[in-house]
């Protein structure tokens, strides 16, 4: 350490005074870590690891060397996020990924305050200082359980109003699109039961609790089995545009690689549509 023993002892005492606890249990000239000291070692190892990661991140300018903070909407998380993370790990085996799954408003705030490196979300709009790259389209439809006695003909507000209508709460793109469709089709008295989890909404629809407007990709297995029906509509919904968003200053080969992986996985899944 290139310091004298009394200097080490002094630094240890200063650290103990600053933390307000004893880090060593002393017995004459011998000393061993206390319980608090063992905890301090764990935190110190993490601090040193983060400092090494910081140096690598700033030297390379690439968040794929170290920790990548990725935000994802629930639509992507349910449908394809495991595959995206798997391929990313195979390509960058030393990368650590921190995932945040939330709604678009939370993800955009995370980008704005530099808490996320990249977010994959629906229809983010224009963001100052942020690059938005469209990836694919996520089709939407009214959906319900096969046990729900709706006709195979086109659904309308009259036929749908006989059932419990489920949706994400405001503000959300799904809620806004459903309300706008209902009004355009001449519907009145729309009553909606809400749930803030898209995954849970899918479960409720599949169980026959109600009908709802959902991305078809989140119930793809149920649609294949025939237990969930995607109803036909006279006026189809405009698909959600799924985009990758990241701060302009974060652009790197690594970010570009992640965007490419995400686009490929979505299009290979066949439950997302290519951009028109």
Automatic annotation (TrEMBL):
InterPro entries: LysR_HTH_N, LysR_subst-bd, WH-like_DNA-bd_sf, WH_DNA-bd_sf
Keyword field: DNA-binding, Transcription, Transcription regulation
Recorded GO MF terms: DNA-binding transcription factor activity; transcription cis-regulatory region binding
UniProt-listed CDD domains: PBP2_LTTR_substrate
HTH lysR-type domain ranges (all copies): 1-34
UniProt similarity note: Belongs to the LysR transcriptional regulatory family.
Name of the featured protein: HTH lysR-type domain-containing protein
